[in-house]
Amino acid sequence: MMQTWSLAIDSGNSRVKFGLFRDQSHAQFEEPIEFLALDLQSPLPVEILNQWCQRAMASGANKLQSIAGGSNPRALDCLLAAWPEVGMRSGEAAKQSFWPRPHVLRSGLDLPIVIDVDAPERVGLDRLFNAVAGNTIRLPDQPAILVDAGTATTIDWVDATGRFCGGAILPGIELGARALHQYTALLPLISRQELSAPHPHVIGRNTRAAMSSGLFWGHVGAIREISTRLSARTQPPVLLLTGGSAGILAGEFPQARLVPALGLWGMILSMPAES
Ligand SMILES: Nc1ncnc2c1ncn2[C@@H]1O[C@H](COP(=O)(O)OP(=O)(O)OP(=O)(O)O)[C@@H](O)[C@H]1O
Ligand SMILES: CC(C)(CO)[C@@H](O)C(=O)NCCC(=O)O
Ligand SMILES: [K+]
């Protein structure tokens, strides 16, 4: 039986995410077997990807496929330029020593989703990957809200028929922190580490604590307000939470499902059949 394992690569504005998925022909969401997020400056993690490749084959994969895309086409081009020229002779595992060069998704119009917005070709691919994945997780006839808390945070609406309908874009938590520092005379830079503590005290008794409070609770409030407004329109949607900051936000949204690999999974579902 054909066992196709997939490597999905999402190149974002701050980080590149890699995920290893076992055979997904049944198209039901499963968490990746391996997940790795690296800063954009990091070199292609060839050693690790090689280990994943070996792991897939040792677990019975007889075909490997790779797929790449995301919100940052330039970072994606750098990554592809660094791709090792090996193991490309055929899709047969016996001849493969590394992942084949990724199939690249560059246009949202090629994805398996209806895009109901003013200019479908301009929607960030990361938003669409989330929506493609969300369509396999929401119940039939149930809409979905997709919150992706990354460099920017997006809060998108997929209607009960599975169409991507747009949503809201706001600065991510860290972007907010950087902007406060850069555009004021006196505010310090709140580090990524400081920002990764969930649930800060609401009353900050010093500048840093006050900034941490505003950044965190302001974000929680924005997500709550926008998703409440969206939810009021129809039957109750499912709320899916992803992105680098999703983990610290999840505790404030007990009704949400945290799906760190949502976009990677959406990419795999978007892989054209003949590739
Ligand atoms: N360990 C971590 N390393 C890097 N960023 C982290 C970490 N933990 C949380 N973050 C937050 O996650 C954000 C990056 O998230 P993510 O990787 O989802 O974004 P991205 O995909 O690069 O951006 P976008 O989706 O907006 O293009 C950072 O801005 C940071 O605030
Ligand atoms: C909004 C971001 C930055 C979120 O990663 C990305 O999806 C993007 O650059 N989008 C392009 C514009 C749009 O989606 O309408
Ligand atoms: K993203």
From TrEMBL:
Any one GO CC term of the record: cytoplasm
Residue ranges that the Swiss-Prot or TrEMBL entry lists as coiled coil: none
Compartment(s) where it occurs, according to its Swiss-Prot or TrEMBL record: Cytoplasm
Positions annotated as active site in the UniProt record: 126
Biological process annotations from GO: coenzyme A biosynthetic process
Superkingdom classification of source: Bacteria
Pathway participation: Cofactor biosynthesis; coenzyme A biosynthesis; CoA from (R)-pantothenate: step 1/5
Named cofactor requirement(s): K(+); NH4(+)
One Gene Ontology MF term: ATP binding
Binding site for ATP: 10-17, 151
Subunit organization: Homodimer.
UniProt-listed HAMAP family: Pantothen_kinase_3
Protein task: Catalyzes the phosphorylation of pantothenate (Pan), the first step in CoA biosynthesis.
Entry protein name: Type III pantothenate kinase
Organism: Planctopirus hydrillae
Record gene name: coaX
